[in-house]
């Protein structure tokens, strides 16, 4: 894959489809206006969650108003949910009638919308690419130059979503991603475009065969239920994205406790998260009993766990594994007992940051198979890594792709 700030992808799931359009210049606004006009709406409803930059929100609103009356709907601020199992859901029942354009972060892009303009990386890699019913066709429009210019903390949080895709769906990208991640979380528009392509291709390969996301596509949500438990319990003690990082680590710890993994994957999880500057342990002073109780609440009817990187554990045709409270409590305790906690500038509380990644004694960090035996083989050619992506129900369709390293 060429390193370019321009990208076009189509994601098909049954009768529904989504077009991902990534651009990297001011000249692209006119193209977005033309795409909005194609919906031939009588009225547009511009939905935002309060995270979109004012200038970007105003620009999208002006484009919509050029074609139809447009009303602004701001999602109400909500207190942290007492029920972690429902903490990430968005209630769209109260939206006014009209063709919805969502502009903002994960919460805005989780609303069923015809047009989605994510303003941070987490939304662009996650809910903006989801085929929300009942919308039959949708457009996700991303400006990677604006993402690259945003706060590093929001970029770092979004990169945890990319880490999830690599761990659960496409581990062949592990070495290349490990070489890209830095705690500073500063990446140019071309690199962010390549990461968006990775997430879009991973989703496309799974939902093509699993449009309802009840089978293999469950891997796209790996660790998210446990992340909801961490978010509901720890809340302000965590930096952006750290709840999702802890959800991944808890899922790996649970799989290890149950003996499901053919080889330990926890070190691979910690390696990528540490390189990103995300949490690799619980904050000091965490109420472990409360977190464990929240984890138990989110674990029903089961958790998607990994038997190996990119290979969800399956038993009796089920990808959701029942996990009892004792195992979850032990996994929570394991994250609290880790000795590699250090404080980083972006952390809101002491003890939430990672240890510095080890190196290979040649000034470069170790990655993939050289580090912990969990990376996938990857042939290198200059500054690109050529990998084989397998898709389909049994990985029967193969294609060669390049990823910047």
Instruction: Extract low-pLDDT stretches.
Output: 339-405
The strands making up the biggest β-sheet line up spatially as 1-2-7-6-5-3-4
> Shape from CA axes?
globular
Largest sheet: 7 strands, mixed
Oligomer: single chain
The total of beta strands comes to 14
- Rg over C-alpha atoms, rounded to the nearest angstrom: 20 Å
Number of DSSP helical runs: 14
Describe what you observe in this structure:
This protein has 405 residues and is α/β, with parallel strands linked by helices. It contains 14 helices and 14 strands. The chain has helices at 29-37, 54-65, 106-109, 121-125, 144-148, 152-168, 174-180, 189-207, 224-234, 242-258, 266-276, 288-298, 325-337, 368-372; strands at residues 7-13, 16-23, 44-48, 70-74, 99-104, 115-118, 137-143, 303-304, 306-308, 311-312, 320-321, 379-381, 384-391, 397-404. The strands form 4 sheets. It has a 7-stranded mixed beta sheet, with helices on both faces. Helix 4 links the parallel strand 6 (115-118) and strand 7 (137-143). Helix 6 (152-168) packs parallel to helix 10, helix 10 crosses helix 13 (325-337) and helix 12 (288-298) crosses helix 13 (325-337). The longest helix is centred in the middle third of the chain and has 19 residues, at 189-207. The chain is globular, with a radius of gyration of 20 Å.
């Amino acid at each position: 894959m060429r390193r370019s700030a321009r990208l076009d992808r189509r994601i098909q799931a049954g009768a529904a489809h989504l077009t991902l359009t990534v651009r990297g210049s001011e000249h692209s606004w006119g193209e977005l206006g033309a795409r909005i006009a194609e919906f031939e709406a009588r009225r547009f409803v511009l939905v935002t969650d309060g995270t979109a930059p004012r200038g970007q929100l105003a620009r999208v609103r002006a484009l919509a108003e050029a074609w139809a009356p447009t009303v602004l709907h701001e999602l109400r601020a909500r207190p942290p949910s007492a029920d972690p199992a429902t903490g990430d859901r968005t209630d769209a029942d109260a939206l006014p009638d009209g063709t919805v354009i969502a502009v903002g972060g994960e919460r805005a892009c989780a609303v069923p919308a015809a047009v989605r303009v994510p303003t941070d990386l987490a939304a662009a890699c996650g809910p903006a690419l989801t085929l929300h019913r009942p919308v039959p066709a949708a457009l996700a429009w991303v400006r990677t130059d604006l993402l690259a210019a945003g706060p590093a903390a929001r970029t770092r949080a979004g990169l945890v979503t990319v880490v999830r895709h690599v761990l659960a769906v496409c581990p062949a990208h592990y070495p290349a991603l490990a070489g890209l991640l830095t705690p500073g979380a500063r990446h140019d528009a071309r690199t962010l475009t390549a990461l968006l392509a990775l997430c879009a291709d991973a989703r496309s390969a799974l939902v093509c065969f699993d449009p309802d996301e009840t089978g293999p596509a469950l891997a796209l949500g790996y660790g998210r239920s446990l992340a909801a438990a961490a978010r509901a319990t720890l809340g302000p003690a965590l930096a952006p994205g750290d709840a999702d990082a802890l959800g991944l680590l808890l899922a790996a710890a649970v799989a290890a406790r149950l003996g499901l993994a053919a080889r330990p994957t926890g070190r691979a999880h910690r390696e990528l998260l540490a390189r990103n500057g995300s949490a690799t342990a619980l904050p000091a002073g965490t109420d472990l009993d409360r977190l464990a109780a929240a984890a138990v609440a989110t674990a029903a009817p089961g958790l998607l766990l990994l038997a190996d990187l990119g290979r969800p554990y399956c038993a009796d045709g089920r990808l959701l594994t029942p996990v009892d409270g004792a195992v979850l409590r032990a996994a929570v305790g394991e994250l609290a007992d880790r000795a590699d906690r250090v404080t980083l500038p972006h952390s809101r509380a002491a003890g939430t940051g990672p240890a510095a990644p080890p190196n290979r004694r040649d000034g470069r960090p170790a990655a993939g198979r050289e580090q912990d035996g969990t990376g996938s083989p990857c042939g290198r050619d200059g500054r690109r890594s050529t990998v084989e992506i397998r898709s389909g129900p049994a990985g029967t369709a193969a294609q060669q792709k390049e990823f910047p390293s």
